[in-house]
């Protein structure tokens, strides 16, 4: 073996041996460091996976969604507003929709109700249902339920059930289909019904909608048409597909919330601990350096020795932390963070998160965890290496 | 055995473990992409704009279509208090300025 490599291996061996001599303390540092990296990596992997899943699933959202605001709150749109869009050229289709939330007082759960007149006679769409079909035109009270809604309503094999209008009179409904559990990320809390049934449930006027879903013939014209729609319907909120995508690019990012801030704070605390540990240079350590210097070791060799010790700790902790985080997302669907997402939700849907890990995520984590640790141990290593042999031995 | 050999063995084990995780991950991605066209059609047909991750508040269930001020409008002086709110950023877009 090359003499230089052999020399480095010998220094590494010596460093690992001295780590082993204080195994209790070093093992604690290793475990804490692995834990911090595990938390950071789990957060990053989960954020990246959700962002990527949203990108894949939401790529086909309608080009423009139009809502009406009044006094800063969303209010229904009327058929009159729909008529105002006749003058906007470039729109290929407009689909009115009713989108709302039904609060189930019996158990405190919130369901998302979507009323749509969209015709759904597509084999591809039917493949998303466990059984049954979508509400057909003219079929009264037909509902497709998300799997979490079905469980929460406790319907079992029953098909008929009823919900309450705002005046507490009952609306009779029957389920005609149930969405598969595998698409819970989109449909877990969904109740899909016809426009008329949704209007009846929310006691809305016969010509009222909550949103208009607009498709544009030429995608390059979407911003222009969005602007024209905003002019045509005063007080409207016009959200483009691009804005929805941008929301999901940013919503789970590292900048989001104090979740990341807390994790970075824990990393900072660990780096301070590592720095402090290095500075806590005992009499015994000083004597060891003194003896090494008397045996002919140079300052550079001792710095290299300390660097190898830190590098070995960082590499092992980083590898272990990343592997555990990956397994956490892959096999347990981010169980530790799921409770934060679900929060106080009564409806607790199960969903599969598929990790989408890229090289840049690993590099980012390395830069945020292992590099600060290595940097924090440089100054203590230098201080240890400049000790004069005759002053300590 | 030399300590450096033990270290390199441990690191090799970690690399092997990650390679296995990568294989399982790749298989799961394949399953996700299997019915992707159907899910994308559903998204387009019914205008499903958000992921059903959290159902505790309307602005965390539908962050992309919620009012930007929604977290603070429950009562005067209200602050954001839902746990899932710690994960999400405020809504982007929807105002007239965004289209200009």
Structure, explained:
With 393 residues, chain A is of the alpha+beta class. In chain A, 54% of the residues lie in helices and 19% in strands. Chain A folds into two domains: 3-56 and 252-392, no CATH class; 62-251, no CATH class. Chain A has 17 helices and 13 strands. In chain A, strands 1, 2, 4, 5, 6, 7, 8, 9, 10, 12 and 13 form an eleven-stranded mixed sheet that branches. Chain A has a two-stranded antiparallel sheet with strand order 3-11. In chain A, a hairpin with a 5-residue loop joins strand 8 (160-164) and strand 9. Chain B has a domain at 44-89. The mean pLDDT of chain B is 78. Chain B is mainly alpha-helical and 100 residues long. Chain B is elongated, with a radius of gyration of 23 Å. In chain B, 51% of the residues lie in helices and 0% in strands. Chains A and B meet through helix 1, helix 2, strand 1, strand 4 and strand 5 of A and helix 1, helix 2, helix 3 and helix 4 of B.
Largest contact between chains: A-B, 101 and 68 residues
Structural class of chain B: mainly alpha
State the order of secondary-structure elements of chain A, H for helix, E for strand. HHEEEHEEHEEHEEHEHEEHEHHHHHHHHH
Oligomer: heterodimer
Distance between the termini of chain A: 35 Å
Give the overall pLDDT of chain A as a whole number.
85
Residue-averaged pLDDT of chain B, rounded? 78
Distance between the termini of chain B: 69 Å
Number of DSSP strands of chain A?
13
Low-confidence stretches of chain B: none
- Give the amount of beta strand of chain B, in percent: under 5%
* Spatial shape of chain A: elongated
Number of domains of chain A: 2
Molecular shape of chain B: elongated
Can you give the helix content of chain B as a percent range? Answer: 40-55%
Radius of gyration of chain B: 23 Å
Helix content of chain A: 40-55%
Strand content of chain A: 15-25%
Strand count, sense and barrel status of the largest sheet of chain B are:
none
